[in-house]
Each structure stands twice: as C-alpha cells, then as structure tokens.
Design brief:
With 147 residues, the protein is mainly α. Helix content is 64%, strand content 12%. β2 and β3 form a beta hairpin. The radius of gyration is 18 Å and the shape is globular.
C-alpha cells in the first residue's frame, strides 16, 4: 500500500505542476480583453448551462469562495454580462445566466483561448495521448452537468 501512495502522490504532484504551468501560459496570452481568467471561467461555466442556475450551483464548478464568487457575479452583472432573476421555485433565490452580450464575449474570447489551449496541448502530447489524458481525467471526476 505504501508504494501505491507514493505513486499516487507523485501523479498528483505531476498533475498540479502541469496545471500550474499551463495556467501561467494561458494567463499570459493576450486574449482576455478586459476580463480576468477567473471572470472568463464564470462566463464559460454559465455558457455550458442550458438554464439559469443558482450561485451555489455555479460555485460547485469554479475555484472561488462563495463570497468572492458573489462579488464577481455582481461585477459581471454590473457590466451587463450576467443577468439575475428570481428563482421561480424559491422566491428568495436568485438564478444566474449569461446575457446576450455575455455570451458574445464568452464566445469571442473562448475562440481565441481555445486556439491557445490546442497549441499548448498539441505541443506536448499526440492526439492519442490527449484522448488518453481525457479518459484518465474523466475517471478522476464525476461529470457534473448543470442542473
């Protein structure tokens, strides 16, 4: 068992190191316009949701504390990128969605970011290795679609 823990920890460290390296590379790209990568992540996450979602649901998909996410959503809403509406099933709750402008911004930035991601991933891995990486990562997390 001790050998397996060592291998598991080495794999985890390699995964984190690769993630940090790629995120630094992506952050340095000139694609973000006037958004931060974290703001883009919120827009991207909302773009994947077919229906408006609650802040708590959004929080499960981004790496921010709930208070930080709430402040960010407020800023994105003030900029006209995110809309807030009363939850029809619970009048105390608020549901979030992209506005048309928010979707346009997400798509525009997303196209450029996607090209950068493809360049970075293909520079180090073959298409077959990328498929294997996707499969392995899929085993590590359960696919949490928006409700």
């Amino acid at each position: 068992m001790a050998d397996h823990r060592h291998v598991a920890n080495d794999a985890w460290e390699a995964l984190l190191t690769a993630h940090a390296s790629l995120m630094r590379q992506f952050n340095a790209q000139d694609v973000w316009e006037d958004l931060s990568m974290k703001e883009y992540d919120v827009l991207y996450t909302l773009s994947k949701c077919p229906d408006p979602i609650r802040l708590g649901e959004l929080n499960r998909h981004v790496l921010l504390s709930q208070p930080a996410l709430s402040r960010m959503v407020d800023r994105l809403a003030d900029r006209g990128l995110v809309s807030r509406s009363t939850d029809p099933t619970d009048g105390r709750g608020i549901r979030l969605a992209l506005t048309e402008e928010g979707l346009a911004v997400q798509r525009r930035i997303g196209r450029r970011h996607g090209r950068g991601v493809a360049r970075a991933m293909l520079s180090g891995l073959t298409p077959a290795e990328l498929r294997q990486l996707e499969e392995l990562c899929g085993k590590l997390v359960s696919n949490q679609d928006c409700e």
